[in-house]
Amino acid sequence: MQELIRLDTVNPPGNExxxxxxxxxxxxxxxxxxxxxxxxxxxxxxVARLAGSGDRxxxxxxxxxxxxxxxxxxxxxxPWSGEVRDGELWGRGALDMKGHVAVAAVAVASLAREGFxxxxxxxxxxxxxxxxxxxxxxxxxxxxxxxxxxxxFALNEGAGERLEILGRTFYACSTAEKMSSPFRLVVHxxxxxxxxxxxxxxxxxxxxxxxxxxxAYEPELELGPETEAMIEAVAGQPLDAHEALELARxxxxxxxxxxxxxxxxxxxxxxxxxxxxxxxIPHVCEVEVDCRLLPGQTQxxxxxxxxxxxxxxxxxxxxxEGHGGTRSELGTPLWRAIESFVAKVDPEATLMPVCSAxxxxxHWVRQxxxxxxxxxxxxxxxxxxxxxxLIHSADERIAIxxxxxAVDGFxxxxxxxxxxx
Length: 421
Known about the structure:
Elements: H1 2-5, H2 17-29, E1 34-38, E2 44-50, E3 59-64, E4 84-85, E5 88-90, H3 98-113, E6 122-127, H4 138-144, H5 146-149, E7 153-156, E8 162-165, E9 168-177, E10 179-180, E11 183-188, E12 192-193, H6 203-216, H7 225-235, H8 241-251, H9 253-259, E13 266-273, E14 280-281, E15 284-293, H10 299-310, E16 315-319, E17 323-324, H11 333-345, E18 350-356, H12 362-369, E19 372-375, H13 384-390, E20 397-399, H14 400-418
Parallel strand pairs: 3-6, 3-7, 7-19, 9-18
Antiparallel strand pairs: 1-2, 2-6, 4-5, 5-20, 8-9, 10-15, 10-17, 11-15, 11-16, 12-14, 13-15
């Protein structure tokens, strides 16, 4: 994992081939053959396979090697140092998700060293371009090389933290995710010299009113099957969305933070551009909004809501993309495998389904092949609130004890799902 951290794969530009080559060499040294597949040479995906006889289910250990950017000024250590402090490994991607990449690689390599022969295929994919999604990673593999990544089940990122809620212990397992559905507002005005503001119609000022409307919006709350199951597991009884959120807020801050974005669409204005000169009043201002829809919601469903929130104005609206919003059923062989692992390592704990508020690559295999995909990377050494705040942030790090726990979890899932000896 330290070697992976020390490779700068910030996306853009990505340069994930360097990570794929490192993994290929590591797997090869442990008797596992793998190949690189790339739309462009510098952005390779690695796929390795322990072939089975076809008598059992196939499992994909899914991961991505790109990361978001890191500003060294904000960090206590070099973000690409892979430094170990007090039992924690620091660096960009430690949580999202080079730790997961390393764990999956070690799980496959260690099983191969021990002579494991699965009855169903065990596949490991370390993909490019998850953080941006410009068609270089898993989406491209599903379209151009579907046979490489088509499996019955997939184990990916998205959850796995140990939670203490209302005096009980849970491990979260992501079985669904919200749709990433950003949109752009283009606000129109009239340009003019900034020294004479009365002769112009400032598009930036007009945009501010729209941003305030988005910030003030209080969405209607609703429950999906994942949140219903999660709430019933925690509360011991069915509750409606408002009752559940009130209980979470009164009981535990981390529980409320987990639950709240899963009860509605979310709107977060994040980017704005207007004049390129200080002394020129802008005639156009663009605002980009990160919008996440609940699984099953469509853009057509929420357009009337957004129209009401934004109201009348001199602006245009356009969706930028729509990815995700998929879910997988519960009670499958992979669910039972994860459940039995939790029972083994933490007998008092319960496995709890959750919907991921963020987008993951699980969407691509669910949509392309009907793969049952869950997000589960078991963690119990680090406080879950701290973990959530470190992802995409400064001082990202992971407990080495959790890396070891996750290796055990991935090996357990691989053996239970694919069978063999």
